[in-house]
Design a protein that fits this description.
With about 650 residues, the chain is mainly alpha-helical. It contains 22 helices and eight strands. One of its GO terms (biological process) is fatty acid beta-oxidation.
Length: about 650
């Protein structure tokens, strides 16, 4: 086959007057290009199909979003502010917003100078400073050891080696202390953040408002758990990874300048060259750095969606089993997981090229620069009367051992300095990732504050052509007023002194701003027994939510009974039994007296037995070996009817005067 190909090449060369080498190279180049085209064509085709499909999906989603209409006189403002149009995306970068958010979070994590966190930061700083001094001392000690080896000084070598082993014990303790203090700082920061977030989340019904009335978070579980933990760990780790490299660079630079001066060389060119190379490397890496903050925030969001999918199956396992919906839930789980995996593949692909560039600059370019910095004092020793020259001339080997000591010490110091600068460069990625966590946690705290002030934002999915109960769409539009896409709460809530409940011209409006009843007026006096009936969706449960304070009063006046602890709970003296009774964690006694605690509620067993007799549930206590103190998973232990009747026992007369069922 090769001979046939050679004859063809020779014939073509003679016929067209082209050199054989040129013709052979052209044929080889064309063959290589065709082979590469064969390999890359399927991938390029796949990419084009994915791009086309993505554009179609975007256009389809834009079409769907255009069908989403906000109830506002100005559709442009509402679509921009309230998220009815394009969804607002947070920017995750090292900008002014990031530093503002970080300062706000740092005030939460370190509330003052005389705090435990400040003490831990002081100890960590002193430990890092000690580790830097130890690094310089160990580098100089290793240079002395190499010098004794070159001089064949057995006694001096043994003495230096003994010092080296003696310094190893405090050095290892300091290294361990750095990791210990970093872990303590992370835990302390997380504890501060968790206490602050939990206090906001579990006050003034914020936990209900951010899930039912506001759609900005989409579920606070991920942010309250993983995001808070990652934020605290990132801040603690960044303090160590920024403080120690800065100290190392300062002290190592001073030590290198001192050694260069002793060797009789100029002290300016070497450090100036190193600083120029480091600055240029930093600019290149900053220009080529991907948006790690946005990638990390998107990863956290997709992890949260996957967790929500698993939680939904756990909560509704029985219903899914009855309907046989495991295949559908399987598709949902696979969709959430594939979304996360696709994003992780994207992160890995982005990191591949960035890490390659980073390693090339930091490992090879910096190593070559370090060799130049070390070689300059040895190759261009111009000061013959310097201290270094006197030391060299004093040695019996014409300064070979002294130069070897200098080379070893400088190499170790440069290695420590390069490692410090590399950690500073690498910390940029961690800082951008911190920006993502800080943005998500700050947004969560801002939403909590807005929810406490009854300021909500959500995607309002309603049809502009919907007809209301009075058949007048224009009148219904005027029931709710908007300000930049946010519905204005104009209703007045008062407390009655006689225990009565009154609604005067109060509209029943869902969180999606769907108006169920445009105007409702009703008066309920103490002692009245009122039964409200009607078809599904007419507003029976919605009325209870408005009276209980779960939903805002957009217009009119609501008068409800006062409660002594209303300033603490921000809810009326009503007891609402939901359609699905809630079973708390604890013993049987806790289920009956909920929401009080068994330690604070002084209820005797006789009183509790009387309550159970009223609903015919004494058998529950009798069948449990420990009676009211029995612990268990009551949500799965009790049947649906037992849970409904057990919830009725919470209507203790001396605790609640009015009840809504």
């Amino acid at each position: 086959m090769s001979s046939v190909f050679s004859k063809l090449i020779d014939g073509a060369s003679a016929r067209y007057g082209v050199r054989q080498e040129t013709l052979t190279r052209s044929v080889a180049g064309v063959a290589t290009a065709l082979y590469l085209l064969k390999l890359t064509y399927p991938h390029v085709l796949t990419r084009l199909k994915q791009s086309t499909q993505k554009k179609n999906n975007q256009s389809h989603s834009e079409h769907n979003r255009n069908n989403i209409v906000l109830r506002n006189n100005s559709s442009d403002n509402s679509s921009t502010e309230n998220g009815g149009g394009k969804k607002q995306r947070l920017s995750f970068g090292l900008d002014r917003d990031f530093f503002r958010q970080l300062m706000m979070l740092l005030k939460i994590m370190v509330p003052g100078w005389r705090t435990r966190e400040m003490g831990l930061l002081t100890c960590a700083t002193l430990t890092l400073l000690t580790r830097t001094f130890l690094s310089v001392y160990v580098a100089e000690l290793e240079g002395q050891i190499v010098k004794r080896i070159v001089l064949r000084d057995v006694h001096g070598f043994g003495l230096m080696l003994a010092r080296w082993f003696a310094i190893a014990l405090p050095a290892t303790f300091v290294n361990s202390a750095i990791r210990y203090l970093e872990g303590r700082l992370a835990l302390s920061f997380r504890e501060r953040l968790v206490k602050h977030a939990y206090k906001m989340y579990l006050s003034q019904q914020t936990y209900y408002r951010v899930s039912a009335l506001d759609t900005r978070l989409g579920g606070a579980e991920q942010r309250l758990t993983d995001d808070l933990s990652e934020l605290a760990s990132s801040v603690a780790h960044l303090y160590s990874s920024l403080t120690k490299p800065l100290l190392d660079c300062a002290l190592v630079g001073i030590a290198l300048i001192s050694f260069s001066h002793k060797m009789g060389a100029k002290t300016i060119p070497g450090p100036l060259l190193a600083a120029a190379v480091i600055a240029l490397t930093g600019q290149i890496l900053r220009f080529a750095s991907p948006k790690f903050g946005q990638l990390v925030a998107e990863e956290a969001t997709r992890r949260g969606k996957l967790r929500e999918a698993h939680a939904r199956i756990s909560v509704h396992a029985e219903e899914i089993a009855f309907y046989g919906g495991h295949d559908t839930e399987h598709r949902y789980l696979n969709s959430a997981y594939k979304s996360l995996v696709t994003h992780l593949h994207r992160i890995l692909a982005v990191k591949l090229w960035y890490v390659m560039l980073e390693q090339f600059l930091m490992k090879y370019v910096w190593s070559g620069t370090g060799l130049l910095v070390i070689a300059i004092p040895l190759l261009y020793n111009t000061t013959a009367t310097s201290l270094g020259s006197r030391m060299i001339n004093a040695d019996s080997d014409n300064g070979v051992s002294e130069r070897t000591r200098y080379l070893t010490t400088s190499k170790n110091l440069l290695s420590s300095g390069a490692d410090a600068v590399e950690r500073l460069m690498s910390s940029y990625k961690e800082l951008v990732a911190l920006a993502g966590y800080a943005a998500r946690v700050s947004e969560m705290l801002d939403v909590f504050k807005d929810a406490a002030l009854c300021k909500y934002r959500r995607n309002i999915v309603t049809s502009s052509s919907r007809s209301f109960l009075n058949g007048n769409t224009e009148f219904a539009e005027k029931v709710i007023e908007f300000n930049n896409g946010t519905p204005i709460i104009k209703g007045i809530v008062r407390e009655s002194t006689d225990g009565s409940i009154s609604l005067i011209n109060v509209p029943i409006v869902t969180p999606n701003c769907e108006i169920i009843v445009s105007n409702l007026t009703v008066h309920i006096k103490p002692g009245d027994h009122v039964l409200i009936t009607g078809p599904n969706g007419c507003g029976k449960s919605s009325l209870f939510r408005i009276i209980s304070g779960l939903w805002p009063v957009y217009d009119g006046t609501l008068v409800r009974p006062a409660e002594k602890s209303s300033s603490k709970h921000i809810r009326p003296a009503l007891f609402y039994i939901p359609q699905k009774p809630y079973m708390t964690v604890g013993c049987l006694r806790d289920q009956i007296i909920y929401p009080a605690h068994s330690r604070s509620e002084n209820c005797s067993d006789e009183e509790l037995l009387q309550l159970l007799d009223d609903v015919d549930l004494r058998s529950i206590v009798e069948r449990e070996p420990e009676g009211f103190d029995t612990l268990g998973d009551w949500d799965s232990t009790l049947s649906g009817g037992e849970k409904q009747r057990l919830a009725m026992t919470r209507l203790k007369p001396r605790r609640r005067k009015e009840s809504l069922c």
